[in-house]
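**Fold tokens**
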Amino acid sequence: MKVGRNDPCPCGSGKKYKKCCMKKDAVVEIRKVREERFFQLKNELSEEIYQFLERSLPFSEKLRAETVFDQKINSTQNGDMFGPLFRLWYLFFHRFDNGLRGVEWFYQEKKNGLKAEKARLLETWVSLVPRLIQIVDMDDNGITVEDAFTHERFHMPFCETMSKPIPWGGTFCLLEPFGEGYYVHGVAIMEGPRGVKRAYAKINELMSETRQSYEQIAMTCFLEIVNELMDPYDFRHREMTKIDEVTLHYEVDDGKKLVHSLEKQDVVIVDEQKGKITKLSFAGKQYIYEDNLASSPVYMREVLGFIEINKHHLKFVTFLPDAVESFIKVMEKAGSVARFIKKTVRKLDAPKNVEFRSYAMQLGENVPLYFGALANQTLDIYQSLHTPQEEWDGKTVMQMVEQGKKEEVERWLQEREYISFMNAERLECPVTVDFNTIRRKFGLPLSPFVTLGEKRQTRLLEKQRTDEMEQYEQYDMPLEWMDSFFGKDIAEFFIEKTRGKSEATVSKYGTGLSIIAQYLLQSRLSSWTSITKDHWQQCIVYHYLEMNGDASINQAKSFFSTVKALAKWIDARYGTNHDKTVRSIIQTVEEEIYDAIRLLDLYVPYTTRKYHYWLQEIERDVVENALANHQVSGLFQITDVSAATMKCKHAESGKQYTISVTSFVRSYAKAGMIIRGNIVKTANSSRWKFIYVSRVFPKEAGQYLS
């Protein structure tokens, strides 16, 4: 919308536009127009010089120039920049057989025929000498760079050759004055503080060896210096070493019982349960990351290795030597449910002095996923403060701070902030890691590149076990619950309802609350007030049946009773209105869920699902292997039920199948119900039959099944 001269100024000052920002906007607009004209002239003049050389040089000399460039630039990084870099070097640094650089040759031959505007620009170009610069500050309009040799500072407006501030990044380039700022001429390959340090050392080395001035070295050895700038430390010359990938093998009697034991010890995170396979992470320390840019904390759990339970075989894999001993002790605590078989070791190549770390993340409902990456990087940086550094003869950052070596620590932090920013760029993360909290602790100047600047506040905590946690563990409350908004409430509710009661009551509430807690964890909700009617419905009509292959009528009734009691308890504590919602949902779907369980019972009896599920898995494998080309598997929604058949629509293909049913099945099968299983065509008939059923859902669960 166009702002009139006499309208209130959009900046909110209360003044008229003509008395406030109109002149500023006009200045900005004029600057943009001048800048666009400046870049247009640069492009035109560069092309004229290039075409002049193309016409003036024999093919052999052009080929020789390309060969020289390839010999001097041997970095494997920034390959997409080599074309523009070659053109810059070809026009401004390479000396041809006549002893002139391309820009000098063109100036000598064509300056008199140029318009005044281009002639002035060309005169500037002839006199340019590359500078080794580092970004040291920023504002809304651009960045400030510092010359590594003269320590002069230059303001560089944001533009097409400098579109964003790269924290502490540096380059070796031609810096061209225009208006009130400076601009990169041609191309600038940006690297971190270590790259600037290498280039600085290279220039000093060449000056010492040749007794030449900075200007002479910068012009004659441009490519050598750029190449040194680009060489990522430890990249081309990184030492490799061998690491052990250790695998422990166990024989397991009861996979469910073992998983329960591991969960009770609070040493695993269940990653996936699919059929006969359960995948878990072997978990270590717990951390909490708090950030004033995030609405709730990020919970992190150290992953020490990976566990896979396949029927009666367990396999644990890790690269961490300490994790092997820890896992062996954990399995000993699990008792006779598992027996050690063997240990295998595989040697793998890995970069020397590189640590392998992995974490499981839990974020609140409204916390963007990139905060997980921020938390991960923050933890890595804090741990690095205590890691011996080769460049300091094994001293840590903390030791260097204690010894007053703040300049060295400043350079280390700059490099880490640069690396962190580049990682965030790859992840498209719009927020930077907070280095200012560390800088305050060390008494160092704050970084201008941290999001929110001095207002940014973050905190990283290692979660310690407490007496309260030990108390909850006595009631089989996983510590994972205690990290979540609902954990303490569910624990108190459980203790209140079961203290002094029978084992049956304890079992009833324990089962029901486990189902609810598991759903709340998966849903990433952040508070009781954020739970909607749809959340309760998904938990009741879908999640309960999906996660409980041993569902029974009695168990379902106990679950409904627990959900209603918890909703009423939460309402009394927080003034919410969940009780009415939960009772309405259960009243609507209760009988449909009972029918779904009864139908499942007809295909797979409760005792088989409860106590012999592994036999069911074996049976399914045998049938699938024998009838691999004659069966259809997946989700089937009942569309019609008749005397001897029911019609089902296959969710994946949309195809309708007529399935034979018994009178008992007909009693409970209802249109809209969804069955997960396998069907096969019956002999001498167009009908099909279920040969395996794993779940049955009421029609209301359809929106949650994919």
